[in-house]
Design a protein that fits this description.
The complex is a heterodimer of chains A (345) and B (262).
Chain A lengths: L2 H30 L7 H16 L22 H21 L5 H21 L1 H4 L19 H28 L1 H11 L1 H6 L4 H27 L10 H13 L6 H16 L11 H20 L43
Helix pairs in contact in A: 1-6, 1-9, 1-10, 1-11, 2-3, 2-9, 3-9, 6-7, 6-9, 10-11, 10-12, 11-12
Chain B lengths: L14 E10 L2 E11 L4 E5 L6 H9 L6 E6 L2 E2 L5 H7 L1 E3 L12 H8 L8 H6 L1 H21 L15 H14 L4 E5 L7 H16 L3 E5 L3 H7 L2 E6 L2 E6 L1 H4 L3 H8 L2
Parallel strand pairs in B: 3-8, 3-9, 6-7, 7-8
Antiparallel strand pairs in B: 1-2, 1-4, 4-5, 9-10
Helix pairs in contact in B: 3-6, 5-6
Classes of the chains: A mainly alpha (345), B alpha/beta (262).
Chain lengths: 345, 262
């Protein structure tokens, strides 16, 4: 593969990992807990901006061509960790404003409005994150390791892959735990969950925080690679790309976000690049959005549980009935919560 | 079942409802209702449709806020507590409709109800995994015993949405018991349940009450209420119009007018 192709493929891989991380966070909120956070993308943006201003030097550097707060020039991995924390706290904060008082559908509307307001504020407040022009020349974390651009990109892809794997494992353990079960109970029937002693508001705030932190991590990983971030990077429509990815992959399942993030933002969105130019100049780029919208509708109508639906959580039979030898069908059946083969879906 | 938690004072009822009222858009769903429910007994709550029975249960459970009145539980004023806090004190309700977690299995529906699960704290999930998994195995065993008692163990891996109406009522009862209640609020638990199972359920409920749990039972099937309840309240148009033993209620003119003769 030529250097240019390698650069292209490595970039796609990194974007794929970033989308998988983000989709996992959204899966925790929407898929597992049933929270319609239509402002999800602003938590990715929070992580990205946070990493940017923590990694960049003072605003006056480089001739002061861009204006922003902080500029602390912190070493890796501090920006990543602080970004996750900031996005998580932002999640709990916005959640506290909204979750307590609003039902699911109204919450969705309010979060969408918050997303629009956030874009407006960041665009118009020049001194915060350099307004509409956004931030550029954000330092890369591993430049001292290699001078080869291609090697660097693959190294970064490996780093993004490790972060992605850690997030996936952490989310999986959470989903499979009794806490995850309570979150699913809240999704299914919040009144019944409350009647069994579940603090529904606290559980929703928790996923706002954890999901926000995961979104922040995705933004941090993305911006340290792309080295630039502006309001056009996180328009509200990006949230719906992630929702589409979840619905296509499988809402609430562990691997659904992985499949969905590969199919929707990577294959579908990137695939439009390869279409021959025809019609008015804006037609082909618009086709990307039209395709995503059509795919979303088709799945909602015909395949609402997605490609990898949420699997049934079953438990090993009581010990006398426990099989002494491994089941020959293992691998074809669902896994139960004890991590062994059991009657799956 | 309840002895490990603080008891009500000597002679005090487990639940004391005083003068609760609730209106929806000018309609008095419940008006100045007072009653008490002792531990270890089944208190019946009957009345025609729209009498305010489910609303009364909802108010006691904390799902509906009363416009007036107070509710004491085990000697403590709980009027201001949200429903999840009341549940944690041991007040567990079942629902007349839609009380299940549809896309959770029957077994999982029960597991959700178990109080004090270590794996429900995010700080424990990653640190003491072995501990909460051990606890979960024990809870699975308890849940299976309950499902067996209610005759739905075969359905443990079915989604709750796949159960018949009667099976759902049984699952909800089993789930309520999984929560280790001190006061059970049952909203028409017999609806859709087969006659054979009805008799067994009656026995189960008496056993539960004998274990010290107070039960408030809303039910339309009067023979069943008569069978299991010592004390019965009759509600009509949001008010208590009679109370006592079923046999004596049958002789009260107001009760007959409002309800029993239909």
């Amino acid at each position: 593969m030529s250097g240019a192709w390698q650069f292209y493929v490595a970039t796609l891989v990194i974007y794929g990992f970033v989308y998988i991380i983000a989709a996992s966070g959204l899966n925790l909120q929407f898929g597992v807990t049933g929270v319609y956070n239509f402002a999800f993308i602003i938590f990715q943006a929070a992580g990205a901006y946070c990493t940017a201003v923590l990694t960049l030097g003072p605003s006056s550097a480089n001739g002061g061509f861009q204006h922003y707060i902080l500029g602390l020039h912190l070493p890796f991995p501090l920006p990543l960790l602080v970004s996750a924390l900031v996005a998580g706290v932002l999640g709990v904060g916005l959640g506290a404003l909204t979750v307590r008082r609003l039902r699911a559908d109204y919450l969705a509307i309010v979060m969408l409005v918050i997303s629009l307001i956030a874009t407006g504020v960041v665009t118009d407040y020049q001194g915060l994150f350099n307004g509409a022009a956004g931030l550029a020349l954000i330092p890369q974390p591993f430049v001292s390791v290699t001078t080869s651009l291609v090697v660097y990109d693959w190294l970064y892809a490996a780093y993004a892959g490790v972060v992605c794997l850690l997030v996936l494992v952490a989310v999986r353990v959470l989903i499979e735990s009794p806490l995850g079960r309570s979150l699913r109970a809240v999704r299914e029937n919040e009144n019944a969950a409350a009647a069994l002693g579940k603090n529904v508001t606290a559980l929703r705030l928790l996923v706002f925080g954890v999901g926000g932190a995961i979104a922040g991590i995705s933004g941090s990983v993305l911006v340290a690679f792309a080295q630039a971030w502006s309001p056009s990077s996180w328009l509200y429509a990006e949230t719906f790309v992630l929702f589409t990815a979840l619905i296509v992959g499988g809402v609430g399942s562990n691997l659904g976000p992985v499949i969905g993030a590969v199919i929707v933002p990577v294959v579908l969105a990137e695939g439009s690049r390869y279409l021959p130019q025809f019609g008015p100049p804006t037609l082909v780029p618009s086709l990307e959005w039209i395709t995503i919208g059509v795919v979303l509708l088709v799945f909602l109508w015909f395949w609402p549980r997605g490609i990898l639906p949420e699997r049934k959580h079953t438990f090993l039979p009581a010990s006398p009935a426990r099989p002494l030898t491994p089941q020959p069908t293992r691998g074809l059946v669902g896994k139960n919560l004890d991590g062994e083969g059991g009657p799956g879906r | 079942m309840s002895a490990d938690r603080s008891p009500a004072g000597p002679g005090a009822p487990l639940l004391a409802v005083r003068g609760i009222s609730c209106s929806f858009g000018g309609v008095h769903a419940v008006a100045d209702v007072s009653f008490s429910a002792p531990a270890g007994q089944i208190t019946g709550l009957i009345g025609p449709n729209g009498a305010g029975k489910s609303t009364t249960l909802g108010i006691v459970a904390g799902a509906i806020r009363p416009t007036a009145g107070t509710i004491d539980f085990a000697g403590r004023d709980i009027t201001a507590l949200p429903s999840y806090r009341r549940a944690r004190l041991g007040i567990i309700r079942t629902f007349q409709m839609r009380g299940e977690f549809d896309r959770l299995t029957v077994l999982e529906n029960l597991l959700v109800a178990a109080p004090g699960q270590r794996g429900e704290k995010i700080s424990n999930i990653y640190s003491v995994r072995r501990t909460w998994r051990q606890q979960q195995r024990e809870l699975v065993g308890q849940a299976r015993e309950l499902l067996d008692r209610f005759g739905i163990l075969d359905h443990e891996n079915a989604y709750a949405a796949e159960l018949s109406g009667g099976q759902r009522r049984l699952m909800e009862l089993a789930r309520a018991l999984m929560a280790k209640p001190r006061l059970l609020l049952l909203d028409e638990p017999m609806a859709g349940v087969s006659p054979a199972m009805r008799d067994r359920l009656g026995e189960h409920l008496r056993e539960v009450a004998d274990g010290g749990v107070g039960i408030v039972l809303v039910e339309h099937q009067l023979p069943f209420v008569e069978d299991v309840s010592g004390h019965v309240l009759v509600l009509a148009q949001g008010r208590v119009i009679g109370e006592g033993k079923m046999s004596s209620l049958r002789e009260q003119a107001a009760v007959l007018d409002a309800y029993l003769t239909g």
